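Hello, quick one for you while I still have it in my head. A protein chain has come my way and I'm curious about its shape. I'm sending you its amino acid sequence along with the backbone structure tokens. I'd be grateful if you could look everything over and explain what you see. Here's the protein in full, and shout if anything looks odd to you:
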Amino acid sequence: SILSIIDLADWNHHPYGAVVDKYGFLWSSSGPSEEKNLLKIDTVQDNVVTKIYDLQGLSPYCLALDKFDHLFVSGWTSNKLGRINILNNTFDWIYSDNMYLNNSRGITCTSDGDIWVANSGNSTVTRYSNAGDFITSIPVGKDPMALSVDNIGNVWVCGLSDEKIYMINSLTNKINIIKDIPGSDGHY
């Protein structure tokens, strides 16, 4: 059943990506819409706590949290990656990279704090340190879209334009498993 509804009409925000931090705040990106903002919503009081609209050219798409009080934001059409301190709601840094961050979509963090980004523009997954330093780029399938981390630290990625999923070993930065899913017509 629906527990509550939060009206966002006055906030000029169309929700796209969302994560809930360890303090119970829901972070919402505006995704491919024109607004280009983030909202922080108190899930206990059911109200918007803050709106971050000065994204310094970053087009917020997908969101991921680490265990160090950081929110990471992929910048789909802006080819940027940003880190926000969730305690004071400010950007720690925004990294721009037209070579590796090419139409960045899915994003996740491994337990070491590293950030993994699916880049559909160049069919890669890039890995960055928690400070935003480039580590490696790994070619994967066609149009990688979404990422997830399993319980032993492997990064799984699926693509929009192929019928495969890939498992990347986070210790070696190599693909260990490619699994065909015939008839799936790609994955979003």
In short: DSSP finds no helices and 16 strands in the chain. The longest strand covers residues 90-96. The mean pLDDT is 93.
